[in-house]
Amino acid sequence: MQDINTQLPSILDQVIQSIPFFKAELALIFAFLGSIIATLFLDKLWKQSSFIITLIGIVSSFVLATQQFGQPQSGFFGMLIIDNFSVYSRGIILAALLICVVFIQQHFQYKTFGKNLGDVYSILLAAGLGINLLTSTTNWLLAFIAIETVSISSYILVGYFSENKRQTEASMKYVLFGSVSAAVMLYGLSLLYGFTGNLDFTSFEHIQGLIEAPKILLSVALLFMFTGLGFKLSFVPFHVWSPDVYEGAPTPVTAFLSTVPKIGAIILLARLFEEWTSSSFYFSELVLILISVASITTMLIGNLVALRQSNIKRMMAYSSIGHTGFLLMALVGNLASEPQVLLFYIAVYTIMNLAVFGLIDVMEQKIGSVQLENYQGLGKQFPITFSIFTLLGISLIGLPPTAGFIGKLFVFTSIFDLFQFNNNRYYLILLVVGALTSVISLFYYFKIPLYAFLRKGDEVKILPTKSTQIVYIISIILGITTLLLGIFPNLLLTLFK
Amino acid sequence: MITLTHFLVVSACIFCIGLYTVIAKRNAIMILIGIELMINAAILNFVAFSKYDKTNYGGQVFALFAIVLAAASVAVGLAIILNVYRHYKTINPDNITDLRD
Which of A140, A171, A193 has the CB atom closest to B80's CB atom? Predict the structure, then answer.
């Protein structure tokens, strides 16, 4: 106790010195508080006040995050790591979060369901804070807190509106599955802490402890730990929640869930993977095998099950599971190349998914359905919407001339480099399965233009809505961006240099 | 003499009881209790291991944070289960299957 008293001033000094590194997150925290206060007091005077505060908070956090570019720092006793990787990913996350906020605002603008929309913005900001922290830490404590922050905010987002039975069911499945995964992960982390006595997974003691740990117990601990991360990323076998939740949740919330939290989790996993697979001991091999097998099965199951879906949100859920498998492959490929391959794929995936869910939202509000067969013959009525839909489908499959193709090309190249370098057969299987599932995905993405343009359907009565214009414009801009990035990938790649 | 092994055995037992409660799912609230047991098993582990980490007290700090987070997620879980009950008049997860393939 005595030595803590003497150390306390220096500890406090270091905490105070670290606060400037935290400014991008502080902006989100202040916006979170501001939006709660605005919901309580200002929304009666001006309906949009909490929305505007949220937008300002996200934009200022984006600006503050970009200012940290090029100055690698670490604060709070090494818990917070600010490097370029973290700055790029936080840039992508905040931009995607901004679009999601606009989607949600537009979707619920004219709905009266007796609940205050302002609360949703503050929850979104809290989720953004958690995801930001995930990208800039190598400490298990901070990583766990961040994962739980994101999870709890996501449960509330799915269940908050509960307009119908399905939404409550989705939120219950989400909260039960998510809490169990978090509990299992916590147990795994406690075992890892027991082996190593240190919570920073890049530290020397941590690696040393992993090398000396008994093999069976270590395998159990790693499996438990990957349960939690696997739940956030929804890779097989922890994917079972995602189709139900994506189908049940309101469409703009699905757009958020399928993109933003995944970026944070994949960045954390990328740091972990890079650090742990560099040695030649048992645990490195185990991590490589676990991730490769998860990637292969995720790509196969996601894309194969997507083939027999008739609900487009459910189909996109399986498609995003398939893409998670591909993201894991990009993560393995990250070993061989600069982080820009992974970042490029993440950025492109985010753009494509946000655009698709934006268009699904627009169509849902116009025709009141998310079933594929209700899209029959709609190509004539909504030519631009479905042309962009088709373009996004092409990009999601990974065909030229879209950004999806460039992203997949980079990933395949880096995996092939790795394979030539050390002839590990897992790399070869990854390559084959990656190519194969891209072909499989062609069959379900092309269902959309098949129904819209080639099948004849009755003229559909368009529901009167006022709130689709902005979502429609954003989705179209994002759709054209995928085309632009496919033709000029350097626009993004030079940014990630 | 109570050693580290005793703590680990107890925590492993609690974890298994929690996992069984979750898997046997009859009632959503029982599942939440199971989750709580699993988290407490992990917390016990952290505190027990922290005996050997006298410099940073990482385990004890982690235990504190884990307690707070568990409370938060259980609060959200209960609110959501209440919502489910309003719509379905049951909280047995086996009977709530509108969303499936």
Answer: A171
Q: Closest partner residue to B58 among A141, A178, A247, by Cβ?
A: A141
ipTM (interface predicted TM): 0.97
**What does the alpha-carbon distance between residue A357 and residue B8 come to, in Å, rounded to a whole number?**
47
Q: Which residues of chain A lie closer than 8 angstroms to B56, CB-CB?
A: 198-199
Residue ranges in A82-117 assigned as alpha helix (H) = 84-108
Chain centroid to CA A57: 20
DSSP per residue, A327-366? HHHHHHHTTTS-THHHHHHHHHHHHHHHHHHHHHHHHHHH
CA distance B98 to chain A (A): 7
Q: What is the topology classification, in CATH, of domain B4-95? A: Helix Hairpins (1.10.287)
Question: Exposed (0-12), middle (13-18) or buried (19+): which is A12, by Cβ within 10 Å?
Answer: exposed
State the nearest Cα–Cα gap between B70 and chain A, in angstroms: 8
Work out the minimum CA distance from A213 to partner chain B, whole angstroms. 14
* Nearest CB partner across the interface for A179, out of B35, B43, B84: B35
Residues A366-418: tens digit of each pLDDT: 888 888 888 888 888 889 999 999 999 999 999 888 999 999 999 999 999 98
Task: Please say whether the dihedral angle defined by the alpha carbons of residues A81, A85, A88 and A93, taken in this order, is positive or negative.
Answer: negative
Give yes or no for B28 touching A (CB within 8 A): yes
Do residue A180 and residue B100 have CB atoms under 8 angstroms apart? Answer: no
Distance CA A35, CA A119 (A): 8
DSSP A277: T
CB count in 10 Å sphere of residue A307: 13
Residue ranges per structural domain of chain B: 4-95
Q: What sign results for the dihedral spanned by CA atoms B53, B59, B60, B62? A: positive
Tens-place pLDDT, residues A274-283: 888 888 888 8
- Chain B residue with minimum CA distance to A165: B87
Q: Which of A269, A316, A319, A326 is nearest to A295 (CA)?
A: A326
pLDDT of residue A335: 80
Burial class, A308, CB count within 10 angstroms (exposed 0-12 / middle 13-18 / buried 19+): exposed
SS3 label, residue A82: strand
Report d(CA A342, CA A344) in Å as an integer: 5
